[in-house]
Amino acid sequence: MKTGLLVPALLLVAACHPAQQVGVDRPWVRLSAVPANPSAAYFTLKGGPKDETLTAVSAPAALRAEMHESMGKGGMMTMTPLKLVPVRAGDSVTFAPSGKHVMLIGLKPDVKPRGTTPLTFTFASGQKITVQARVVGAGDSAPGD
Fold it and tell me: How far apart are CA 42 and CA 28, in angstroms?
């Protein structure tokens, strides 16, 4: 095989293989209107070739980070803590307003709109992913809106 054909052939083969591990897309944080109240983090988990389970999200800029899910029940919104979040192979799980989210409790005052803050995702396999989440103010639109 000529070397001029080798590179395109390798790129074609690489494009056919799914991601090797779970990933985190579009992470962002909406600050609370009242600084003493929790802020919230949102993102999309992208499954890799194997099922995975999110066990925790941490944020060095917060005293505590907790996974929760909001849902309507009897005309009222309720919120339930989440211990584990399964991510099926090749699927995605979205954390978005009025659904799954991470509450950031005791967020440091130096986290400001238009900045970023790190979030670390821990999975049952032991894998950890740290990403920079965009920060928006309480009344601002979500990134990409």
Answer: 5
The partner residues of 40 in beta bridges, in order of sequence, read 30, 103
Note the pTM of the prediction, 2 decimals.
0.84
Q: Which residues contact 6 (CB under 8 A, 6 or more apart)?
A: none
Structure tokens at 132: 């920079």
**Mind listing the pLDDT tens digit for each residue in 94-128?**
999 999 999 999 999 999 999 999 999 999 999 99
DSSP one-letter string for 1-66:
--HHHHHHHHHHHHHHSPPSS-EEEEEEEEPPSSTTS-EEEEEEEE--SS-EEEEEEE-TTSSEEE
Q: Letter for the amino acid at 126? A: G
Task: Supply φ then ψ for residue 78, to 5 degrees.
Answer: -125, 160
